[in-house]
Amino acid sequence: MKEWRENNMMKHRWPDAYQVIEILENAGFEAYVVGGAVRDFIRNVHANDVDVTTNATPNEVKQLFDRTIDVGIEHGTVLVILSETIEVTTFRSEDTYTDFRRPDKVMFVRSLEEDLQRRDFTMNAMALTKSDELIDYFGGRKDIENKRIRAVGDPQKRFSEDALRMLRAIRFSAQLDFSLHKDTLEAIQTLHHLIEHVSIERVKVELEKIWTSNNVEKGMHLFVSSRLANNFPGDWETFINKWGNFNYFENRANGWAFFSLMQPSEDINSLLNFYKCSNAEKLHVKHVLSAVEKLKKGPWTKQDFYQFNEEVLIVSSLYAASIFTIHIPYTMDEILQLKKAIPISSSSDIVVNGNDLMNWKQQKRGPWIKEVLNELTIAIINGQVKNERKQIKEWFFREFINGNLKPLD
Ligand code: ATP
Ligand code: MG
Hints:
- By secondary structure, this protein is α+β, with helices and mostly antiparallel strands.
- It has 21 helices and eleven strands.
- The chain is 49% helix and 9% strand.
- The strands form three sheets. A seven-stranded mixed β-sheet has the order 3-4-5-2-1-8-9. Strands 6-7 form a two-stranded antiparallel ribbon.
- Helix 13 (253-261) crosses helix 15 (279-297).
- It starts with a helix and ends in an 8-residue tail after the last helix.
- Magnesium ion binds next to loops.
- Residues 249-395 form the CCA-adding enzyme C-terminal domain.
């Protein structure tokens, strides 16, 4: 038993956080692990980052450690660099909120309880001492046992202070497979429109966290039933049950592809612009939509296998099957094999270039080169000519010098 406790001590689990706390305590301050790390400790799962809270001011923290970085000193946060980086934040409470998102000013306070009170949910409002003593003023542990997300204090007041919390509640519900406490859900249903005050970048991040969680369908159902979805463009409802089949495959852009496939509108691009998707994301979505459209009409051609990358091919076939119940004429392995069988993956893989063509035809550079290279790419993809100099030269003389094909000058 003693051994178990030793191994479970913060000293072993989070040696750097332990060291930070010990140094702060030795200097006469209080310090605790707080937030997500405590929640994950109680849930018995590994926490990625560990946050420390203290009654020392940022300047007092900086004096105690050799290497620190100011990241948000006005909010009380200093990064302390040991072998890992620990975020150390001064106990603070938040003043009035007038923009439904950020407090007008933060105030440093000297009591842990006040600091915990400003946090969003009971499960995120607990602290742990360096000897693993849990400080839990709001029943966070019980809520975790009941797999329940509950706002600290009056949910309507807390969501009016910061509307992002409403979406965080839903994201945590998808990530942790927790339900929302009745009052917390009702408060979101009442105040959902306040989400418009949150920047679309933050909304995008939270949606993507839902899509990369283990309970996407649950998260999306809550996004709709909480009415938050009403405030955002796009059809979130018609295919809501399809999200159960969604798999993001290591790429968040696939969430946008799946969402776009569900849209009746042709103007996907302006929808993606609204959500501030990057150009890379928009291109990925465009390819998936195009691959699915082709699949609706029949099997992909060799040129389709050439044009689309492996990921686009795989997700398009899976998403087409799950959203439109289209029969997919391939297994996943077959898709990968057919893709591999395409001899080139871009025109730069072709072993001849424009100079070769100019030499062979004894003709100056001009638009004809691009045209011949396009024809050649298609011929190679379709297996009519091998990607070898000798064969390409023969093909070129046969088709363009002696044959009927005449490239434009
Ligand atoms: P994750 O695993 O997603 O990082 P987390 O709980 O650590 O989860 P963070 O966004 O890193 O979440 O925030 C750290 C802590 O800060 C939270 O646990 C919570 O106590 C507090 N917090 C974060 N955002 C808010 C907010 N908008 N309102 C109130 N408290 C917040
Ligand atoms: Mg965190």
